[in-house]
Hints:
Layout: H1 3-10, H2 22-25, E1 32-36, H3 46-53, H4 55-68, E2 73-79, H5 83-95, E3 100-105, E4 108-109, H6 114-122, E5 137-141, H7 142-152, E6 159-166, E7 172-177, H8 182-188, E8 197-201, E9 208-211, E10 226-231, H9 235-240, H10 244-254, H11 260-263, H12 266-269, H13 276-283, H14 290-293, H15 304-309, H16 316-329, E11 352-353, H17 354-361, E12 372-376, E13 381-385, E14 395-396, E15 403-404, E16 409-412, E17 422-423, E18 428-433, E19 436-440, E20 442-443, E21 446-447
Parallel strand pairs: 1-2, 1-5, 2-3, 6-10, 7-12
Antiparallel strand pairs: 4-11, 6-7, 8-9, 8-10, 13-19, 14-16, 15-18, 16-17, 18-19, 20-21
Helix pairs in contact: 1-7, 4-7, 13-16
One iron/sulfur cluster is lined by residues 255-261, 277, 280, 309-310, 312, 314, 316.
Amino acid sequence: MDLLQKIYEAGVVGAGGAGFPTHVKLDCKVEYLIINAAECEPLLNTDKYIMMNRGEEIIKTVEEVGEFVEAKHLIIALKEKYTEEINSLKDIIKRLNSNVELFYLGNYYPAGDEQMMVYEVTGRSIPEAGIPLDVGAVVTNVGTIVNIGEAMKDNPVVDKCITVVGEVNNPTMLKVPVGISVKECIDAAGGTDLNEYAVIIGGPMMGTIIDDNETHKNHIKKTDGSLIILPKDHYIVQRKRKPLQTIINETRSACIQCRYCTDLCHRYLIGHKLRPHKVMRNIGMSEQDEEIMKEALICCECGICELYSCPMGLSPRLVNVYVKGELRKKGIRPEKGSTDIESRDMIEYRKIPTTRLMARLDILKYYNQNIDDIKELFPKEVTIPLSQHIGKPASAVVKVGDNVSKGQLIGKVERNDMGANVHATIDGKVLEVSDKVIIQREDNGVIL
Length: 448
Ligand code: SF4
Ligand code: SF4
């Protein structure tokens, strides 16, 4: 069976970010296969754990995938400061006589942004609204590589490694079935002493926020890798939760057009025509220049302008999100730019050092928390969404009352679909089938 068929059957999607279906992404021939192991968002540790514990599988799988996409260069891009992980991977590469290379990135945000990483490794800027393939590269996350390795052994994606950090009593690394509740993950990290808290699912810059009373109804997906527990009045929570109308009103009155948001925007720095300060000026005008507003369409929502650059506490990122929505309503989509673009001269000097970013975000105290050894959790119930990523949801192939076993297909997409299959992550009985499948563990025929 060919590699893409195995990946499709196992339901592999990008383990970080939007979760692009991997069998679609790897259906290409490229010069560069780049493995993203930068984990550039502050406080995340999952990829480092995977590299230390699954190194040999990672190197072997990169070779297999590299051969499939006919890449001349097989590169794992990771931060120079990950010395333990680098030494471990170097030893494995040497022992296996592998042609996989390591590429060292600085400790800055967003070193793990796909476009920035391709620029760093190849020196080529991906065009506006383009993808790495436009410049001869494909990028896949190191966690995805581990899942591809499992897919090659006919094991579907059923588990995730999750780091739980921040205001918990025992920061920890967990191995959990997809579909476990966020609450159970926090409880496994010793819970929190805070009376009121918020949870960031993902990194502090690009993650989503839920409230303490929503943790039982939010469940771990294939794309999740970390949970950060913060006080409800924390700077990040407050900034991310500011109402859009307040932001627009503040923009009209407070934007001083200093253009820091543009000068520090990495998409602008790799050569894209994205100038958030211009969008901010336009949003305050009664008649808006649509050509300038269209620049918002190529914003990747990394959050630098919102959480780091702006001296006035404004949120160009959220304004861009709003503008994108308005343009989409009019049927306006991002237009692909020319490949003939060059980065701007100041790019090397305008990368945001991660430690300075953490100080600005007021999260330095959670940096280097002692993380307990990995714990595996066996919940009695899982809630598995049929849509866990961008693209088409899977169609359920089980019904209420069915007994399913771990790894069994429960949601299917066609091979040509932009979507991914979904599998049972525990043994048990199906309790609900809707846009999700709920499975409860049974012992001797009795639901626990
Ligand atoms: S950084 Fe803030 S104040 Fe300066 S131009 Fe951008 S939005 Fe306006
Ligand atoms: S969020 Fe801000 S800094 Fe990031 S790409 Fe968009 S405009 Fe640029």
